[in-house]
Structure formats: structure tokens, C-alpha cells
Amino acid sequence: MSDIDSKVKPRILIVEDSAIVALELKEYLQRLNYEIVDICAAAEDAVNIAQETEIDLALFDIKLKGEMDGIDGAQIFIEQYEIPVVFLTAHTDEVTLERAKKTKPNGYIIKPFVYEDIKTTIDVAIYKSKADKKIKESEYLFRALVENSQDGIFIVQNFVVVYANEAFAKIFGYELSEVINENFITFFAHSEREKLVDNYRNRINGKILPREIEVIGLHYDKQTELILNLSAGIILYKDATAVMGTVKDITAQKLAEKTLIEAKEMLEQSDNLKTEFLGQISHEIRTPINNILGFSYLIKEELGSETNDNINNCFRIMDTAGKRLVKTVDQIIQMSQLQIGDQKVQKEIIDLDKDVLEDILLDFFQKAKEKDLSFNYQNVASSQYVECDKFMLGEIITSLIDNAIKYTNEGSVDILVDNYLDNKTVVEIKDTGIGISRNYLKNIFLPFSQEESGYRRSFEGNGLGMALVKKYADLNDIEIEINSEKGKGSSIKLFFESLSEEKIKTLNIHG
Amino acid sequence: MKILIVEDDLTSRFVLQKMLTPYGECNSVVNGREAVEAFKLALDEKKPYDLICLDIMMHEMDGRTALRLIRQIEKENNIHAKDEVKIVMMTALDSPEEVFDAYYKGACTHYLVKPIEKQKLLNVLEELELIKK
Predict the structure, then answer these.
(1) Nearest one of B28, B23, B87 to B56, comparing CA atoms
(2) What is the pLDDT of residue A345?
(3) Could you tell me which residues of chain A have a Cβ less than 8 Å from any Cβ in chain B?
(4) Contact indicator for A89, A100 with CB cutoff of 8 Å
(5) Based on the domain organization, do A369 and A230 belong to the same domain?
(6) Does A34 share its domain with A173?
(7) How far is B106 from chain A (nearest CA, A)?
(8) Does residue A279 sit in the same domain as residue A412?
(9) CB-CB under 8 Å, B92 with A286
(10) Which residues on B lie below 8 Å from A336 (Cβ)?
(11) Cα–Cα distance for residue pair A473/A393, rounded to 1 Å
């Protein structure tokens, strides 16, 4: 009992017109460590004091002289000032006692006093009053919360709305007064009603149901459908089982969601179309070229030894032209796939020698020989494993060697595999070709760029090669370093990320 | 050497035949279904193929499905890995992904990109030890 403000002395006002009784009480209470604020003989005086002073409890004699008696005074104390009152009564008639009861006092002390009981009565009264105040406060807080909530809050008993907040009425387009005592089902679309009745019954019968469901609500106009989140739980309301819950209008949210999903689907669809289109174009160009190249090969074979240098030269040009066309189509398609982010990177551990270089070099030996270039390959790396997309790495190296041979008219093209700082693997492609000017170096990775442009340029190409190299390198975390001197030659180095210890371990396990 | 060419494009079929005839007996079919049938037949006659050149994009049954079915038949007949028929997939590189899928998952032995070049084809055959250098 003493846990509410036990350190502070409770402040008590005595309202008693018998001076002797009052003084006796005061002395007794002071001994018990109460603070007596004042003693009044009339209720009016007591009310005046209550206006100015903080009082924890008033002891009221019922029979007082003056306009007001003790009951009138106590009523003001209790109702206006929320100060608990304990009545001091002698034998009283039934009518007076009834009046006293109506003020809801916090206790009675019967005269003549049994002093031992007084302390208990006073303490209980103070404690209860403070507890009541706290409940009232939390009730006030709760009410404010409910009434200001943007979500509709309701209590339903026997399918009838017995309580609802403003937001609930507003969601459905009703006045608050129209909502109360309305059948709960009225607020929902016909198609939902059966489901809701089942749900309600099941809930009442103690079945465990999802806390939140999505339902279609029906607006006051009986036409507009609302998408709602409905959540509910069982409570005891006015001594009977009830369902209390909240309603949230998510119509706008759902509409936005739907629009987004539709937009996404449309995007996916057009993306698929695009991919399909690219595939088809590639196929449509490749098939006729294949036919031309195939039959030119067949004619050449058919002619056998009957050909001469002139005819052979024609066949060679047809072959080169066809392959160039195929390469251009491939590069355009690869570039567009990269641009739309369609290309998936499938990284794996690659043996540079076995998985990539061997095949590629084989192709280029012949080309280098045709141009009378010295073509050398050297591998001095202790680790030639890298982690890359095999296809992309193949494209990078093919492009670079292709360029080196294309732009070198005499001298050599050298390929070197080595290790660098931190055990990084480096592939270097070095040539003694025409070199790249400082000015063009800035633009070398831009699509469709070439050092010489226009019809008078001395080298063929679509300007996509290096742009693709750069894109593929970026996707695989490969760094590119270019050193070049006009007229002397170029060196392009590819730096690979070093493999992590774990990956090297896995490699060793697999042999 | 016994070779099966599976290719629905007339040119490619002619070219492959021309390139491969010097190295063995060539049969040609035009889709995956026919390829599987031819493979079965040869197996029943105890004259299995040594090499199948298999196009990926074909009507009726594509190369990937045929590859899977052929490997399945081999399994059912308890054919050892070393005796499995060598299969070279051929693609127009419409989608490298598709090729790699076939290359790894379907256990084809090799792949070539069209237009088929004679030297590349021969290099592959050498690597597969079907012809000598």
C-alpha cells in the first residue's frame, strides 16, 4: 500500500465543524506521519482551499452547517478536483446515506472513531484514488489513440458493430452514428460475406486463424469496392465475447501494386521480344552466309586440281568476306546483349593454357603465317588458373590477337603469360604494329570508334572489338593496361584477380 | 570410321559430308529423332558409330534432346565411358549459353561453331584420336 509516493507525507484536509473532534483527529494523524493541510468547519471553505492547495485526501463530516453540507462539498471534491474523500459519519438516516453513496466516496469512518481503523481506511482511499487516476490516464491515452488512428477500429458483438472509431466510418463513407448498431456484414462485398461469417464463427469458437486477411469492402454508395486489410482478435467487452479488430484501406496501395506488376510484365514481355528478335536476326543472317560459304567450299573441292591462283584467290576473298560478316553480326548482337544487360556471367576456374589459349592460338598461327609475321607464345607463369567466364575470356583474347595481327604489317606478335605482384596472372599481347596514337587511346573503348574513320581508312572493322573487350573485361574483373607508341608497336596487358586460397585448395584436391 | 551427320541445313550437310568422306563412311539424317533411330539401329547391328556431328537447332527434335537420349541408350546398354560415341555439337552461336549447356550437362565431347572450317574440324578429330596427324 505504501508503494505509491511513500516518501512524501500524504496531505490531508479535515472538514469537521466540531473543533474538538477535528483537533483530536489532527493530533492523531500527525503522530501517524500525515500532514494536515488545514481544518475547515464549512464545506465552502474547504472548496476554496482545494482550489489553491494540493490535497491527497479530504476527511468530510457529513453534517455541516452552512449552505452546503458535507455531501455537497465532497461531490465537488470528487467530481471537479478528483480528490478522494472519506466521510466521517455518526449514525445517519437512510436518505442521507444514499446521497453520500452516490458521490462515490473512497471510504467511511464511523464515529465514534476506532483509531486503529482510521489509518487503514485513509491509506486504502489514497492508494485506490491514485490507482484510479492511472487507469483514467491510460484510458484517456487509449481513447486518444483509437480516435486519432488512421486505421478503422471496431468491436463487434453478435455481428453488430458496438463500437467504432471515426476512421472506421470514414473508410466506408459513413457518419460515425450510422455505423454503430449496424450489421457488420453491411460493410463488405456480397461475395465476401459468407467467408466473413465463417471466419467470425470460427474465431468465436476459438479456432486459430491468420491475424490478417484481405477482403473486399463495400462503400456507403453500395458500388465502390474497397480493398481492405482486416485483422481481428477475441476480447471480452461488457462481460460478453466480442471481436475487436482493425480495418486498413489498401485500395490505393493495391492499385499502385497492380500498375507496377503490369508495367513489369510488359517490360519482361518486350525484353523477351527483343532477345527473340536478336536471336532471329542472327539466325537469318547466318543461315544465308553459311550457305554461301558452304557452297563456295564445295565448288572449290569439286574443282580440285582444275583451279588456278586467280580462282583460288577468289575463293579466299569469298571466305574472308563471309567470315567477316559473321563476326560483325556476332559482335553487334553481343554488344546489344551487353547494353540491355542480358548477358549472364558464368565464372569458373579456367586453365588459361588448356581451356582458352590453345584453341585460339591454333587459329592464329595460320593467319600470322599468311602475313609473314613471327608469332610466339611463351608461358612462364607458376599459376595459370584464373576465374572467368570462359566464353567472354575467349572473346577478349581472340579480339586482341586478331587486332595485333591486323595492325602489324611486319615483325612479330608475341603472347606472354606471366605472374605479377600478389601472384596475379598477366596475359600480354605485344606487337610491332602501327601503334595507337595518344589521342585515340582515350576513345579506344568507345563503341564504333576507330582511329581512322570514313571511307578512306586503311583498316577494316566495325569498331566494336575493343568496346566488347572492355565490357567483357569489366564483367570479369580483368584490368586492361595499354602501352603503345605510334609506329613502333603496342602492348596490351590483361591483369586477372588472384584466386583466393580456398579456391586454390579446391584446385589441388581435384588434381 | 563410321560417322553420322545430323543436320537439317542442306549446305552444312553437304559440306560436312565432303569434309568427312575421306575419313570414313558417312550417313546423314535431318533431325534428332532420326539420329536416335540411326544410332539404335547401328548399335543393334553391332556396328556402332564412332562419331556423330550433331546440329543443335533442328526441327522435330533438337540436338540437345538427341544428345541426352543417345547417352541414355548407352547407359542402358552398359557401354563404358571410353567406348561412348564421340559427339561434336555444331551451333550457329545464336546463344553461347545454349552451347555450353549442351557441352557440359549433356556430356558432348566437343563443339564447333558454324560456318564449319575444315581445319578446325580436323583439329577436333585429331584431338579425339579419330584420325592421325
Answers:
(1) B87
(2) 85
(3) 279, 282-283, 286-287, 289-291, 293-295, 297-298, 301, 322-323, 326, 330, 344, 346, 362-363, 366, 390-391
(4) yes
(5) no
(6) no
(7) 17
(8) no
(9) yes
(10) none
(11) 8
On whether both A495 and A351 belong to a single domain, the answer is yes
Of the pLDDT bands very low, low, confident and very high (cuts 50, 70, 90), residue A402 is: very high
β-strand B2-6 against B25-29: which pairing, if any? parallel
Which residue type is seen at A405?
A: I
Task: Tell me, letter by letter, the H, E, C secondary structure of A356-411.
Answer: HHHHHHHHHHHHHHHCCCEEEEEECCCCCEEEEEHHHHHHHHHHHHHHHHHCCCCC
Mean pLDDT within A307-329: 86
pLDDT(A4) > 60: no
Mean pLDDT of chain A: 86
In a domain, A3, yes or no: no
Same domain, A57 and A96: yes
Mutate to test the interface with B, among A281, A284, A293, A348 (most CBs of B within 10 A): A293
Q: How far is B44 from chain A (nearest CA, A)?
A: 34
Separation between Cα atoms, residue A116 and residue A121, nearest integer Å:
9
Non-local CB neighbours of A336 within 8 Å, separated by 6+ positions: A278
Fill in the DSSP letter of residue A353: I
Q: Hey, is A328 helix, strand or coil?
A: helix
Per-residue pLDDT reduced to its tens digit, A103-156: 888 888 888 888 778 888 899 899 988 888 888 888 889 888 888 888 999 999
Task: Among A33-42, A111-120, A326-335, B93-102, name the one with the lowest average pLDDT.
Answer: B93-102
Residue A3: CB atoms within 10 A of its CB come to: 6
Instruction: Answer yes or no: is pLDDT of B94 > 60.
Output: no
Give a yes or no: residue A242 inside a domain. Answer: yes
Q: Edge-to-edge strand order for the sheet containing A160-164?
A: A160-164, A152-157, A240-249, A225-237, A212-218
Upper half-sphere CA count for residue A184 (Cβ side, 13 Å)? 29
Q: Give the pLDDT confidence of A173-197 residue by residue, as tens digits.
A: 999 999 999 999 999 999 988 888 8
Is A5 part of a structural domain of the chain?
Answer: no
CB A23 within 8 A of CB A54: no
Write the single-letter amino acid at B20: L
Q: Does residue A235 form part of some domain?
A: yes
| Same domain (yes/no): A36, A97 | yes
Cis peptide before A84 (omega within 30 of 0): no
Instruction: Looking at the structure, tell me whether residues A305 and A353 fall in a common domain.
Output: no
For residue A224, give the CATH number of its domain: 3.30.450.20
Tell me the three cell numbers of residue A404: 595485333
Q: How far is CA A90 from CA A6, A113, A485, in A?
A: 31, 9, 120
Do the Cβ atoms of A294 and B15 come within 8 Å?
yes
- Grid coordinates belonging to B114: 558454324
Q: Out of B15, B92, B120, name the one closest to residue A283 (CB).
A: B92
Range of the domain at A93: 11-145
What is the per-residue pLDDT for B107?
65
Claim to verify: residue A236 and residue A303 sit in the same structural domain: no
Residue B81 reports pLDDT greater than 90 = no
A310 CA: distance to closest CA in chain B (Å): 21
Instruction: Decide which of A116, A145, A174 is a domain's last residue.
Output: A145
